[in-house]
Design goal:
By secondary structure, the chain is mainly alpha-helical. It is built from 5 helices and no strands. It starts with a helix and ends with a helix.
Length: about 140
């Protein structure tokens, strides 16, 4: 019986390690997308979609709040990776390769900081909340 417990623990560690590797890879892909949507070789629609994916991934606000059991994490586990996958397909391969090299270089030196992008993301979410609030108020008044 004691031999079963170490096997389960090793298996759990393996799963945890795989999840950590997956999350690290996803974060790296998001950084690649962050750099790619700013590249002039990327079409406007790919830039727009990529910007929305990156903004949603880094935003603390989710469509489905995390406190809702199971459903709350579905957007993080399904929507973000799906969006990343689609965005990567929209961007030219040479742009992706250049951005991957830049991410590798930055990971050895420092993390990217773009306060302008952060302010834009926050402004977009504020506008969405104002719009939703007005819709709710107008619905309640009728």
């Amino acid at each position: 019986m004691n031999q079963d417990k170490p096997m389960k623990t090793e298996k759990n560690l393996s799963i945890i390690q795989k999840l950590k590797t997956w999350a690290k890879n996803l974060k790296k892909q998001l950084l690649v997308l962050y750099l790619a949507y700013r590249d002039e070789r990327v079409s406007w629609y790919a830039k727009l979609f990529t910007m929305l994916v990156v903004a949603y991934a880094f935003s603390p606000i989710d469509f489905i709040p995390d406190f809702i059991p199971i459903l709350g994490y579905l957007d993080d586990v399904i929507l973000v990776p799906l969006g990343v996958s689609l965005a990567l397909k929209l961007i030219p391969k040479e742009v992706l390769e250049d951005c991957k090299k830049k991410v590798e270089e930055r990971q050895t030196t420092s993390k990217p900081k773009n306060w302008v992008t952060g302010v834009i993301i926050i402004a977009i979410w504020i506008l969405v909340f104002i719009w939703v609030g007005k819709l709710v108020l107008s619905y309640m008044n009728h």
